[in-house]
Write a structure and sequence with these properties.
The protein is of the alpha/beta class. The chain contains 6 helices and 10 strands; from the N terminus they run αβββαβαβαβββαββα.
Length: 191
Amino acid sequence: GHWVNAEGMGFDTFSPMNHVRLPPNVAYSRKMAGVDFGDVNATAIEGFGEYQGRFYGLKEFYQARCKEENLVKACSEFLDDGFMLVGDPHGSGKEQIETLRRYGVPIRPASGHVFERRFRLMLSRLAMSDGGPGVYFSPMQPNLIREVSTLALHTNAMGYVSSGKWAYGLSDHAYDAAMDAMTEMEQHTFI
């Protein structure tokens, strides 16, 4: 693995004790799933529900070298569970979104794919207020939990933390999928 400088840890406020719990069995006011497409890397789908202003992680799909039929099946399962879908339109994502639409999957491009804005959103949702954080992750999201606990900001050759990208070699596919969903929920932009 790649070692990173602990000073650049992205989410040092993340704590499994505070941020990981089984989601409540309630009627969520809305449910959104973000899709981060991988070709060689993993494809991730992270689903969240909103209840009383907090986001609750509900479901995860994570597969390396995901075949088209597996992705269509996974998206269909999220839809069957009441999630709306948004996909990362960058790289091959635009083509992947169009492919899913041809299969009848109602997915639209995610908006707000700005590193700093997404980073600040996660930090603000991890913050504790009114007896808890603004986001809880489910034990059923192990890849997202791993990524949020290990992502570190890029450190330049002089040893200074630079914003705008993660340290080399760290997986961020589940994080990107989660942020696609959370950004849409935060912006209240639904179809």
